């Protein structure tokens, strides 16, 4: 069998060499044929140059592709999965937060017949507020939205060829991998590991992008949130009807009293806000339909390697990994 390791990299110049050394050391110990597929997600630092260097240095076991701009980690993982030719594929971050020593364990579990081997990080060392918010979020998603998401489970995992092909057969433009992994199912096994701190460089997550990622997670699978909106609307309308009955009753019994302006304003503002949220919700779904309808490629490749003998120095060979755009009809040609 052959093992592929897919690594999305965005501005990872600072750790890339260290990462490559560590992963290669771990892989060499296994005595299994392997390949490393690096995807440069439109980095603005020297990541691409490093990748060219690595591809030169380790011909035969290293390939890379480079996007025309930053398309996001989801697109980079998709490109890597398409490029991977192994019987099993491991997805890993470039920042050494995913310990390469675990590859061996993943492979053992794969050989026991599991199609997805998932490394689940413990929240050891995270800030308490962040941990609590994550817990709350996952509980909410699991109760309200039908796809099972687990706290601490990320993209660090091994996928069998069967699972990779299943993922590649999902053509959607809005990709939320955490959910897609769970959606495809198959025989999945999870084990815990302690997350390491980032070795160098910095995280690409800001609070705002985390919130948006959370919203994506809620909306990416089904129309459950719209159904929830209907329920909320019905509940509010019933409350309003009860309140109206109560006011009428009070007026009949005690006569008309001074009207409650404050109550009125609070209700108007509150309902206005709620309506905006619901409109936004519907808008999000329409926006997703809009993006799907355009059928744009998930990414554009500007360069890929290894460089063939005889091509101009320093330039990757665009033909080495297939066509420059992702053509959905031919998912594995890249
Ligand atoms: N990454 C990427 N494209 C992006 C952002 C991140 O390919 O637009 C890569 C990044 O290089 C790293 C992995 O995705 O290998 C995880 O990113 P990061 O470490 O910033 O996320 P965190 O570990 O903080 O969740
Ligand atoms: Mg990281």
What report would you give on this structure?
- The protein has two domains: 3-208 and 296-321, Spore Coat Polysaccharide Biosynthesis Protein SpsA, Chain A, CATH 3.90.550; 224-294.
- It has helices spanning 13-30, 47-57, 73-83, 102-111, 128-144, 161-168, 177-184, 207-219, 224-254, 261-294; strands at residues 3-9, 34-40, 62-67, 88-91, 116-122, 153-160, 188-194, 301-305.
- It has 334 residues and is α/β, with parallel strands linked by helices.
- The protein is built from ten helices and eight strands.
- Strands 7-5-6-4-1-2-3-8 form an eight-stranded mixed beta sheet, with helices on both faces.
- 48% of the residues lie in helices and 15% in strands.
- Helix 1 runs parallel beside helix 2 (47-57).
- Strand 1 (3-9), helix 1 (13-30) and strand 2 (34-40) form a beta-alpha-beta unit.
- The longest helix has 34 residues, at 261-294.
- Bound molecules: uridine-5'-diphosphate (UDP) and magnesium ion.
- Uridine-5'-diphosphate (UDP) binds at residues 8-10, 12, 41, 70, 72-73, 76, 93-95, 97, 203-205.
């Amino acid at each position: 069998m052959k093992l592929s390791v897919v690594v999305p990299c965005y501005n990872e110049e600072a750790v890339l060499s260290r990462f490559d050394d560590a992963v290669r050391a771990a892989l060499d110990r296994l005595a299994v044929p392997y390949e490393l597929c690096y995807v440069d997600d439109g980095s603005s630092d020297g990541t691409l140059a490093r990748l060219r260097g690595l591809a030169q240095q380790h011909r035969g076991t290293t390939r890379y592709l480079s996007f025309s701009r930053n398309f996001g980690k989801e697109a980079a993982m998709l490109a890597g999965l398409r490029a991977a030719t192994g019987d099993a594929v491991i997805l890993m971050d470039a920042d050494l937060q995913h310990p390469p020593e675990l590859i061996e364990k993943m492979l053992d579990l794969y050989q026991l017949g599991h199609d997805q081997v998932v490394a689940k990080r413990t929240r050891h060392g995270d800030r308490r507020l962040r941990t609590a918010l994550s817990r709350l979020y996952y509980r909410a998603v699991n109760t309200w939205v039908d796809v099972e998401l687990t706290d601490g489970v990320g993209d660090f995992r091994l996928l069998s060829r069967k699972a990779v092909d299943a993922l590649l057969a999902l053509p959607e433009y809005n990709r939320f991998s955490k959910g897609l992994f769970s959606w495809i199912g198959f025989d999945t096994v999870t084990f815990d590991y302690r997350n390491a701190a980032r070795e160098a460089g910095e995280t690409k997550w800001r609070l705002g992008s985390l919130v948006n990622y959370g919203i994506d997670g809620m909306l990416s699978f089904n129309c459950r949130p719209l159904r929830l909106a209907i329920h909320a609307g019905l509940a509010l309308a019933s409350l309003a009807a009860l309140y109206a009955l109560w006011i009428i009753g009070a007026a009949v019994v005690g006569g008309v009293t001074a009207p409650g302006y404050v109550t009125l304003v609070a209700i108007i503002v509150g309902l206005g806000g709620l309506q905006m949220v619901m409109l936004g919700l519907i808008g999000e779904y329409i926006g997703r339909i809009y993006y799907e309808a355009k059928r744009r490629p998930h990414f554009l490749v500007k360069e890929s390697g290894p460089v063939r003998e005889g091509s101009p120095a320093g330039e990757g060979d665009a033909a080495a990994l297939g066509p420059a755009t992702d053509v959905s009809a031919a998912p594995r040609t890249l």
